[in-house]
Automatic annotation (TrEMBL):
<protein>
    <submittedName>
        <fullName>Cyclic nucleotide-binding domain-containing protein</fullName>
    </submittedName>
</protein>
<dbReference type="InterPro" id="IPR018490">
    <property type="entry name" value="cNMP-bd_dom_sf"/>
</dbReference>
<feature type="domain" description="Cyclic nucleotide-binding">
    <location>
        <begin position="15"/>
        <end position="134"/>
    </location>
</feature>
<dbReference type="InterPro" id="IPR014710">
    <property type="entry name" value="RmlC-like_jellyroll"/>
</dbReference>
<dbReference type="InterPro" id="IPR000595">
    <property type="entry name" value="cNMP-bd_dom"/>
</dbReference>
<dbReference type="Pfam" id="PF00027">
    <property type="entry name" value="cNMP_binding"/>
</dbReference>
<dbReference type="InterPro" id="IPR050397">
    <property type="entry name" value="Env_Response_Regulators"/>
</dbReference>
């Protein structure tokens, strides 16, 4: 895929909604394009997480393993972001991820992402506000569900 294709894909990702075209270009330029054959693991549960992945083609299955049993958690289709919290905080992977079809992803590493936020503090502030809004919406959904339990 060409740089312009990566920019177009990144522009459709909610996490990067406040980024300018130039910031998206920097992000795309620093991203690593990866191809995965069906059945290839992208990462394992409990791995250190230092990057996020944007699915650009194919499908990635998410699962957890417990007592030798594999429990499917969900799937990620093109445009999905995996592990976005790794861009802003030290974390471990909560699930394993494996290509369920031939797939392509863009790997965005934390240091590149942080460099952009440091150079563009207004973007960092917009991202901070977006994260706060998302967390507040999540809390509201949890509160609604907890009433039924």
């Amino acid at each position: 895929m060409a740089l312009d294709d990566h920019i177009r894909i990144l522009s459709g990702v909610k996490l990067f909604a406040g980024f300018t075209r130039e910031q998206l270009r920097l992000l795309a330029f620093g991203a690593e394009a990866m191809r995965l054959q069906s059945g290839k693991k992208l990462y394992r549960e409990e791995d250190d997480a230092d990057s996020a992945y944007i699915v650009t083609r194919g499908r990635i299955g998410l699962f957890r393993e417990h007592d030798g049993q594999r429990m499917e958690v969900g799937t990620a289709d093109p445009g999905s972001v995996l592990g976005e919290m790794a861009l802003i905080a030290d974390a471990r992977r909560l699930t394993s991820a494996e290509a369920t079809t031939d797939a392509e992803v863009l790997r965005i590493n934390r240091s590149m992402f942080r460099r952009i936020l440091e150079e563009y503090p207004e973007t960092a502030e917009a991202l901070r506000n977006q994260i706060i809004d998302d967390l507040q919406a999540l809390i509201r959904r949890i509160e609604q569900v907890s009433e039924r339990l």
